[in-house]
Amino acid sequence: MNKKVFKKKFLDLLTEKFAISVEDASLFEIYTTLGTLVRSSYAKDWRRTWNTYDQCQQKQLYYFSIEFLPGRMMKSNLLNMGWLDTVQEALADLGINLDDVLAQEPDMALGNGGLGRLASCFMDSIASEGLPGNGNGIRYKYGLFKQKFIDGYQVELPNEWLARGNLWEVRRESKAVDVCFNGHVYLKKQADGSLEPIHENPTIVRAVPYDTGMVGFRNGTVNTLRLWDAEIPLSEESYYRSIEQRRAIQDLTSVLYPDDSNEEGRRLRLMQEYFFVSAGVQSILRHFKAKQKDFHNLDEFVAIHINDTHPALCVAEFMRLLLDEEKMSWERAWNVTVKVMSYTNHTIMAEALEKWPVDMLQSVQPRIYQIIEEIDRRFIEEMTGVVDWEVIQRTRIISDNLVHMAHLAIIGSHSTNGVAKLHSDLLKNVVLHDFYRLYPDRFNNKTNGIAERRWLQLANPALSQVLDQTIGDSWRYDANDLHLLMNFREDEAVLKQLQVAKQANKHRLTEFVLKETGLKINETAIFDVQIKRLHAYKRQLLNLLHILTLYFEIKEEGKTDIQPRVFIFGAKAAPSYHYAKSIIKVLNEVATMIRHDPAVSDKLSIVFLEDYSVSLAEVIIPAADVSEQISLASKEASGTSNMKLMLNGAVTIATLDGANIEIRDAVGEENIVIFGLTESQVYDYYEQANYHSYTYYESSPKLKRVVDSFIDGTIPNIYQEGVEIFDSLLKYNDEFFVLRDYEAYIQAQRQIAADYQQQDKWLRMSLVNIANAGRFSADDTVMKYAEDIWQIEKTNPKRRQAEDKKYVPYTL
Ligand SMILES: *Cc1c(COP(=O)(O)O)cnc(C)c1O
Q1: pLDDT in the model for residue 158
Q2: Which Pfam families does the record cross-reference, listed alphabetically (predicted)?
Q3: Active-site residue numbers?
Q4: DSSP label at 564?
Q5: What is the pLDDT of residue 102?
Q6: Are residues 551 and 660 in the same domain?
Q7: 382, 415: one domain
C-alpha cells in the first residue's frame, strides 16, 4: 500500500460512487469513499479469518453483551491495517485534512459507559491478539440518548446515529433466525413415552444480524461483531396488520434503555435480553451443526461469555435448544452448558443485580421459564443435605416470586469473575459469599484493561511521538514496553518533551472547548478531569465541594495563592435518575456563577461538556493533568477511565477503590495521591451503624459554608435541586460518606496543587504513570480470559514484532 496506489484508487472510487471531483466532494462523500475502500480491503481477510477458524476446527468465543461502545471506527481501522500514515499523507496531498474526514463519522454509541466500552476494548484486543472471538449484541436504532444542557438541565434527545447509514455493517439476510415470545407451552406425550414441549400461539420475531469486522492490529485477523435487528417475519407479513403490532417489533431494537419506571418499559427490556440471547445462541448452534455432528463435546468448540447479568438467559436458551431441538438428555445438556458458559460480574450495587418477576418472565417466554424452574429444582435437590437450608434459600434462582439473574449465571456457568482485585475479593467474601462456598473453584479475578491503541496511539499522537523517539516503537506492539520509559525518569530533555506534548494536547482541548461552547479557558491552568457516568457513588458532588471550597477561599478569605484550575466534567445521568440530574443542574449553575465573577474567574473555571462519549474522551484524556477517581471505597468495581488517564500521563487523585488500588501498586505511593475511607472502614461503619454526617457538617465551618450554599441563595438559579442535595447529605445521612471524606479530599487536593507547582516533580510523576500503564493493557487481560476461562487459542502467531513492523497486511 503506497501513497500513489492509494490516491489513484481513492479518486477512481470517488468518481465511481459520486461522479464528482475531489475539489467538489463534500467531507461526507470523502468519508464514505475512504470507508468503502477500507472495508473492501479487509473483506478478504474477514472471510479468510472466518474460514480458518472453521477449517482448523478452532474453539471460538462469543462475547454476549447488551452494550458495545466502540466509538468511531475509521481511524482505528486505518491504524490496525497499517494504513494510517500513508492515508494521512495521501489525503494531505489532495488538500484534505484527515481529522476533518474522521469527524464525519457518528460515534457508535450502543452503550452507557464502562461496561460497554470494556466490551469494545476487548473486541479490539481479541482481534489484535489473533484470538477467535466474536461479539453478540443489539443494533439499537437510537443507541444511548444525546445529552443537551438547557438552562443547566440535562435534556435527552434521540441519537440518530444511523441517519446517514453505517459504512461498517453488513446485513446478513441469510443468517436470520426466528425468536419466539409469549404464547403458552405444554408438554405432549410422544409415542415413545417422552414429553415434547409444544409452544402454542407464540409471537415470532425475525432476528436479522448486521456484522461489523473487528480488525486486528497488523495481523490479518478480522473477527465479527454481530448485532441483531428485529423485523417482521416474512411468512407473517399478513399477520402483523396493525401499525401497533409492527411498532411493537420495531420497539424491540429501538433504544438501549427503555424507560424502566413502568412495567411496560421493564417488560421491553426483558424482551430485548431474550431477543439477542436467543438469536445469538441459535446462530452459534446452527453454525456448529453445519460443521460438526456431535453436540456432546460442544464445549471443545464453543465458549459463551455473559457480560454482566443481562445475557444470563443464555444458560436457559442453550439448554432449551439442546433439550428441545437436539433431544439431548437433561444431564448431558447441563454438563455441556456449564462448561460453555462463563460470567463476569460488574457491580456489587444491589439495585444493579437484576431480578425479574416470575409472571413477567413466564409470559415473555414460557418455555424458558419452565427450564429455569427445572434448573432451580435440581439445584435445590443437589444442595439439600449438603448445605444449610438458609444457604439454599439465599442462593436459589427463584425466590420471592423473582428470578435472580446473577444466581442463574453463577449456577449455570463454570467461571464467575470480578473486574479488579478488590472487587473480586468482595464478591468472594461478602456479596457472593454463599456461592463462593458452594463453588470455590469457579471464582476468579480478571482486572479490566483498556485498548492502548485507541487510548494512546489514536488519541494522543503527540505523546506517541515522544515515546517513539525516546524508547523506540515496540510499545505499539506490546504495551508492557512502555516500562522502558522508566529509564528516563531523570532525563530533563525527555521530561521537557512530555511537558510540551501535554501542553499541545491542552491547547487542542482548549480550541475544542472554544469551538463547542464559545468558552475561553486558561490553558496554563491545571486541567482537572472527572469524566464518567453521573452517579451518587462516583461522587461528582465531592469534587463540587472542593470547587466551592476554593471559591470561598478566594471570595471570602481573600486567598490569592491558588493554583489556577480548569475543572472538566463529562457525564450523562440516566433519564429517570432524578438525583443525578440535580447534580448536573447545580454543577452547571456553579460553573455559570464562577464564570461571571471576575474575582475568581481567572483562577477557577468549570467546563461541563455535553454528551460525553468515546470521541469526547479521546480529546479530553490526553489533555488531563489530574484524574479524579473518587468513588466511595468498595463501590466502583474497577473503573477504566482511571487507566486511560494514567496512560496519558495524568496524576490520579483517588480513593482506594476498584483498580485504583492496582494503579497505586503499579506506580508507587509517591506517584498517586490517595485519600479517604478504605473499604474496610466503610464496612465497619455499616456494621456499627455509627456514621452521623451531621457531626462533620457541624464541626467544620468551612464545610458548613459550602454545604449551606446549596440552600442559602449563594448559587443563583437553583431551586429544589439544591435542597435535594442538602437533604441527601444531612437529612438522609449522606449515603456515600461525602462529608466524611471531605477534609481528607481537600488535603489531597492541596497536595496535588503543591506537587504541580514543582513542575520537575510533577513531570516525573506523570512519566512514572505512563511507564507503568502497560499492565492495564486489554491485550493482556483478554489473554488471561483466553487461557483461564475460555480456553481458546491464537490462530495467528503473536502479532508482528518490532523487526517486521513494516508488514502491512492489507493491500488495495
Ligand atoms: C472509559 C469510559 C467510561 C468508563 O469510565 P469510568 O470512569 O471507568 O466509569 C465511560 N464512558 C466512556 C465514553 C468511556 O470511554
Answers
A1: 93
A2: Phosphorylase
A3: 346, 532-533, 538, 640, 644
A4: P
A5: 98
A6: yes
A7: yes
